[in-house]
Amino acid sequence: MRVSAGDIEFEWVGDWAELPSGETVATGWAHHGMAFSNEDQIVTFHPAKSLIIILTTEGELIRSFEIPVTEAHGLTLSTLGHVQSIWIADNGRKRDPGYSYDYVPDPLQGKVIRVSMAGLVEMELFEPSGAGLEGDLFSPTSVIAFDDHLGGNGDIWVADGYGKSLVHRYNSGGEYLQTIDGASGGGRFDCPHSLWIDTRSGSAELLVADRANGRVQAFDMEGAYIRTIGTNYLDLPTVFANYGENLLVGELNARVTVVGPNDELVGYIGDNTPVSEETAWPNEPDDAGIPRRTSRLVEGLFNSPHGITSDSDGNIYVTEWLIGGRYTKLSLVK
């Protein structure tokens, strides 16, 4: 099946990824991101276990390894010299099938970590201390570093998307520098779910997916507000990826939005927004009202995009937020 946005056309490739520990995949509530490495590999997470999964662009499993997190959520890659590492936002609790998919543990244990491509922990960051910053809930959803290859100084930006709806900045050594909340820009953040450093214009900008407000806010790399993007065409912006002169925005309520170089809407891929109004979306209830994997998945239409990346050939890869997950490849039609 073919799908498109504007003049860009793709072949929809479902059931694309080969996952380890297959017996647990179907019960894990996937809630994760993905990225494309400098070795032309896809890096993502297992739906149920705390595992990094590394795949070829054809979906073949290369390797997997454990990571010390409760829930592997946001994922970006960081390049130090010629060596890549993996930044992971751990929102601190996971929906457990043994507890009718309630979140455990309580209290949560949020953090961000950087691991090597072999899984060795290189850095850990926790909630910064200070007046108005500490509290009962620190639940990070995204982390990204302003690396040298982006023209940066190594600063690390962390979104407390499921906690206090703040974005924190640390230096390359992990020392806290500042916090932004959107109030001096487009408005106070409400679930700043994902962060991205956009260099398409030649100047780096920090993009914040201000999800519950249905917009993206752009800042300079000192945290000063620049502009707001997409208020007239975004609904639940959740995650970002580069796509040539365009930007990909995965929207949780069932579509991938392509944004042009002047912040214009290019089009929607796999738009299936009405599914988000269904009972117990992104899943469906069993007879006892407990969530189970949905039967509403349709080829060519998304259910709940939560992770996205693209490769050097223009193909797009999407993970979705639901029991059992869904890993889809959009193969560019040339």
What is this structure, in a nutshell?
With 334 residues, the protein is mostly beta strands. Helix content is 1%, strand content 44%.
Task: Please tell me about this protein's structure.
The chain is mostly beta strands and 334 residues long. The protein has one domain: Neuraminidase (6 Propeller), CATH 2.120.10.30. It is 1% helix and 44% strand. The chain has one helix and 29 strands. The two termini are 15 Å apart.
Key terms:
single chain; 334 residues; mainly beta; 4-stranded antiparallel β-sheet
- How many domains would you count in the coordinates? 1
Radius of gyration from CA coordinates: 18 Å
Helix segment tally: 1
Structural class: mainly beta
At the fourth level of CATH, the homologous superfamily is TolB, C-terminal domain
Name the poorly predicted regions.
none
Tell me the name of the CATH class: Mainly Beta
E-strand count = 29
Question: Topology, please?
Answer:
Layout: E1 2-5, E2 8-13, H1 22-25, E3 34-36, E4 42-45, E5 51-55, E6 61-66, E7 72-80, E8 83-90, E9 94-96, E10 102-104, E11 111-116, E12 121-125, E13 142-145, E14 156-160, E15 166-170, E16 176-180, E17 192-198, E18 205-210, E19 215-219, E20 225-229, E21 237-243, E22 246-251, E23 255-259, E24 265-269, E25 284-285, E26 291-292, E27 305-310, E28 316-320, E29 327-332
Antiparallel strand pairs: 1-2, 2-29, 3-4, 4-5, 5-6, 7-8, 8-11, 9-10, 11-12, 13-14, 14-15, 15-16, 17-18, 18-19, 19-20, 21-22, 22-23, 23-24, 25-26, 27-28, 28-29
